[in-house]
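Researcher: Let's do a round of design. I'm pasting the structure tokens now; please hold your answer until I've finished.
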């Protein structure tokens, strides 16, 4: 459970906070949505937690438990998918940030594991405009750098859902969660211009868009290591005096 829920005590948080000039909290935001027949509904939460845990291993941050249900409306055609509205997710993140500030943690990084959580960009943008310290991680550029370092073959466009990247991260971080089938489930649909109107079911019958057969634990390890390196710029930005 420590992979998903931090084991810190209040004294751990107090001690860590005493050693830094500005406290930074890291909030994983996942989803609960279909990921084909071989990855669990909680895949995006597992990925977000794996990234956040890698960050917490490299930087003195306050690791929070994940938000496990978010905006997965494009996956509604598949059983098991659960969503909340973008308005609700916006409010949840804002409330968490406000609570953190009251306890002396005035910087928040939202680690997003689900591409459909478009509203998180608005949350960060609006909070920053109010003078609050908040960031959204990883950016597409961070994923691209990680993809290149790990030797991921599929482009970020092709590797849209339950593909090489997500399969690789779970093979590394949670291999027990995968079921047979990813080796033979590749499906490519690069032109998805009507995704918001049609949903995922307009482009895939299996729920997969990507090339999971190319996934490996080694790639998953390198993906996470690269993202942890990329986080350094975010940490410096949020903890700077200016």
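Researcher: That's everything. Go ahead.
Model: Designed sequence:
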């Amino acid at each position: 459970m420590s992979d998903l829920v931090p084991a810190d005590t209040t004294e751990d948080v107090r001690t860590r906070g005493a050693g830094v000039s500005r406290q930074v909290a890291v909030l994983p935001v996942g989803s609960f949505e279909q990921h084909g027949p071989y990855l669990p509904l909680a895949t995006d939460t597992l990925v977000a937690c794996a990234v956040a845990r890698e960050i917490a291993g490299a930087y003195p941050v306050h690791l929070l438990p994940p938000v496990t249900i978010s905006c997965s409306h494009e996956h509604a055609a598949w059983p098991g998918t659960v969503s909340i509205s973008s308005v609700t997710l916006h409010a949840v993140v804002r409330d968490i940030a406000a609570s953190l500030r009251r306890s002396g943690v005035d910087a928040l990084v939202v680690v997003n594991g689900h591409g459909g959580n478009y509203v998180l960009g608005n949350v960060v943008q609006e909070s920053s405009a109010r003078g609050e310290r908040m960031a959204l991680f990883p950016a597409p550029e961070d994923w691209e750098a990680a993809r290149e370092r790990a030797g991921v073959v599929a482009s970020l466009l092709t590797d849209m859902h339950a593909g090489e990247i997500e399969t690789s991260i779970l093979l590394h971080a949670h291999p027990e969660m995968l079921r047979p089938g990813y080796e033979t489930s590749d499906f490519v649909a690069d032109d998805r211009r009507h995704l918001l109107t049609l949903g995922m079911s307009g482009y895939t019958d299996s729920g997969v868009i990507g090339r999971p057969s190319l996934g490996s634990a080694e790639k998953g390890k390198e993906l996470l290591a690269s993202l942890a390196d990329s986080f350094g710029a975010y940490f410096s930005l949020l903890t700077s005096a200016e």
